[in-house]
Amino acid sequence: MEQTDIIYFDNAATSFPKPMQVYDEVRRSMLYGGGNAGRGAHRLSMAAARKIFDCRMIAADFFGCEDPEKVVFTMNTTYALNLAIKGLLKTGDRVIISDLEHNAVYRPICALARDRGIKYDIFDTGCKENTSDDKLCEGIERLIRRDTRMLICTCASNICSRTLPIEKIGRLCRKRGLIFVLDAAQGAGHISIDMKRMNIDVLCVPSHKGLYGPQGCGMAIFGDGIECDTLVEGGNGYDSLNVGMGEMLPERFEAGTLPAPVIAGLCEGIKSVMAVGVEQIAAYERALYARALEMLDNTDGVRVYAPQFAGGVLLFDLDGFTSEQVASELDRYGICVRGGYHCAALAHKTLGTRASGAVRLSFGRYNKMSELEAFWRALRSVKDMR
Ligand code: PMP
Fold this sequence. Notes:
Blueprint: E1 7-8, H1 20-32, H2 43-62, E2 71-74, H3 77-88, E3 94-98, H4 103-115, E4 119-123, H5 133-143, E5 148-154, H6 166-176, E6 179-183, E7 202-206, E8 218-222, H7 260-276, H8 278-297, E9 302-305, E10 313-318, H9 323-332, E11 335-336, H10 345-351, E12 359-362, H11 369-384
Parallel strand pairs: 1-11, 3-4, 3-5, 5-6, 6-7
Antiparallel strand pairs: 2-8, 7-8, 9-10, 10-12
The structure holds 4'-deoxy-4'-aminopyridoxal-5'-phosphate (PMP).
């Protein structure tokens, strides 16, 4: 099947396709900037270093971070979250998380509960009752205890379109002296994020989803005054005679060779999102959501979860089929969606879909309304197989 025949509704896993300038820049970077950044002062090494610094500047600007040196490149969002969680939480600390967390947050927290005796409390995001933002924050306040040190939550769910009131949560964390770590794997590029205004201490984002960069990197962007331990140690071309990683950011957290071509592509991805505008992209995704919801509401045997939260992610199931069966039958029509649990056991428990998982449609800026018509036709054919 030609790539052009494919309908891709799995943008929450990774966005596809990317803007053409991303593909072009990865290629250009490999051809003309093929040295190792920070390892030597020759022209090819400097060319790679310049591209990486450009990306730090663009990312800092995009996310309201005043200092580009606080932008740390990681392997992906999961690595950035592990860095923040394991580098900041100490034995006996207590942390608050939401009931919509992805395993990228939940598993490291559970690992620290086992290994360091940390304790965690889970706040209710009100997915079922449509709780107001103020009530959600009151719920968080009730969980704060003397030993609570951090709040970490997702910006937006990866299985429904629930977005959390980040600015209010950030203000609350600042008032109560909690470190605020934000998992923006699903928020970055869909919601405007300003670290300073939102009081975010560590922002964890991927290259490959809403920022339309390649797979292979993510970022942990640090706010002021955050003292974090390293997760990995090694060479970075800086202060090589020292046995330690030093205190300087970003070098302290960037051990080993960075994926310069990927970072160069990410830089173009962010620029393309800036050029279109986050609000514009989000509005288009909401329009796709509204049309998809209308179609699913008119299909017997379909149940949509959390339909009140319109956005880029829609979760449903179809009577008589497992979610994996629906996903693989749709794939026969060239339609890419994801069934199962989406690495989010906690979130599926919250939505009441833990027993069987569900089918996720996730939209991106390159989806077309006409693709939804094709999806609907295919879904009705799948339904008629029963
Ligand atoms: N958090 C959320 C909410 C996610 O949706 C994902 C990716 N599915 C991650 C974290 C992990 O992102 P990555 O694959 O870049 O590590």
